[in-house]
Write a structure and sequence with these properties.
The chain is α/β, with parallel strands linked by helices and 204 residues long. Helix content is 43%, strand content 13%.
Length: 204
């Protein structure tokens, strides 16, 4: 792809670094921005810079937030006694889109994967354990993708928190094994949360 402008080329290359964006799509986005008033392009870039500079992670659940504690954790409408454990922030958004869950979350930041060099200490498991033992949590829902790594993570966490007496549930297997939670359709994911099952392997 040849460019008559180095500035356009640099902008295209920047957009092309985003997931799912190839050079052709990146070029269309750049040309679209060029057709907009200068103020619109400036507002677009300022929003990205402002987000990157000011975004925080909730000190309780590790979700993204504008303040130290996210809006979900501070909401009086949420049931703080039910904690949904997820891998990533994208999973929080996927579950929220279903409208089937009114508890709170805990974002692990991934799953245990020795092959990729990710161990328990690399995830937000210690803060989860402290949260379960220190707070009045009655149930944790393991909303983790049904993969080998996901099941390993569920088993590890369950062993860590089983002495707290908290009820441990997993999402129903409407989500196919090997699938990613964030890509499940809203209806299937919502039903999986609503029809969650007791986790049976913690004592084995």
């Amino acid at each position: 792809m040849n460019f008559s402008s180095t500035l356009i080329e640099e902008a295209v290359m920047a957009f092309a670094t985003l997931p799912g964006i190839g050079k052709k799509t990146a070029l269309r986005l750049v040309l679209h921005l060029m057709d907009q008033p200068a103020q619109a392009s400036e507002q677009f870039s300022e929003a990205i810079v402002k987000m990157r500079r000011n975004i925080k992670h909730c000190s309780i659940c590790h979700n993204v937030a504008d303040t130290e504690i996210c809006a979900i954790c501070t909401s009086p409408k949420r049931n703080s006694q039910i904690v949904c454990i997820v891998e990533t922030i994208r999973d929080v958004m996927a579950i929220e889109a279903t409208g089937q869950f009114n508890g709170v979350y805990h974002v692990l930041g991934g799953v245990i994967s020795p092959i990729e060099g990710v161990g328990p200490d690399d995830l937000n498991i210690d803060s989860l354990e402290k949260r379960v033992f220190d707070k009045k949590v009655k149930e944790v829902i393991m909303a983790i993708s049904p993969t080998i790594e996901g099941d390993t993570t569920i088993f590890y966490i369950s062993k860590k928190i089983k002495d707290s007496g908290v009820k441990i549930s997993t999402i129903a297997r409407g989500i196919s094994f090997g699938g990613e939670l964030e890509y499940a359709d809203e209806l299937t994911l919502g039903r999986s949360i609503a029809t969650r099952l007791p986790y049976q392997n913690a004592d084995k």
